[in-house]
Amino acid sequence: MKKKICSIMIAFSLVSSFVFGQAPAKPLEGSISISGAWALYPMVLKWAEEFKKIHPGVKIDVQAGGAGKGMADVLAGMADLGMVSRDVNPDEMKKGAFPFAVTKDGVVATANAKNPFLRELLKKGLTRQRFIDIWISGKDVAWGHLLGTRDKSVVHVFTRSDACGAAETWAAYLGKKQEDLGGIGVYGDPGLAEAVRRDPLGIGFNNINFAYDARTLKPVEGIAIVPIDLDGNGGIEDAERFYATRDDITGAIARNVYPSPPARDLYLVAKGRPASRTAVEFLRWVLTDGQTYVPETGYIRLGPEKLKQGLDKLK
Description:
Largest sheet: 9 strands, mixed
Number of domains: 2
Strand content: 15-25%
CATH superfamily of the largest domain: Periplasmic binding protein-like II
Oligomer: single chain
Structural class: alpha/beta
Number of strands: 9
Number of helices: 13
């Protein structure tokens, strides 16, 4: 009897849906391939994990390889979405790049935790001009030059070898482009962090989520964050001291205390307005319910206006 009643109710539900012009919602299925920036990789992995809990029929493949690869893959039709950690340039827009700002983070300078000058470095910080001296101006910059001493120990400078948003963003802070950055080229965010971690005289830069440990929220073991002397007075004051934890630096970015660049928006980029229902629904979810997972993953939420702009582009 119960089975009969249940069958009648289901049949009535289906009939009433069609009578009133509302067909039952079709379960979301399909696949999405996503490629690109290391900066966005941890966030997109989290989004993919949570989205698949809601839509188990959807498969999402996420591969990191740098913002340049993400853009190239999506424009070539090799990926549905590209992770891009820099602004999309006009030439890319002409080729069909269709960007959605989805979250925000930043790039920080890093040094070895066993650097013999670390105490002074953390006390004084470095000005933008000193960072220009390191990566742009010339070779064989001494630690003494940076810290106002006579020490001749040469700074071992590292940069990224792959086309990436972190390097482009860091170069933009210094008034240049990625190709202008000097130093030993290292592939990927993990590689650059490891290079600095192995060299007591090394200096580099990383996206926040590769400079800070996701579990402890403190700088990755063996890495120290180099503070920026924002007012150029030769010391890091309380208002400039926001590097102890990942929450501290993301809070500074959210308050617009940390400069932009190296704070920046992060994008998911399609080739033209997405036509796939699966991709559209994923992007719509990222810009709405998916924002719940942004702070816990170490990123900063965008303002409601930017999120609305993205949603309007999906209409």
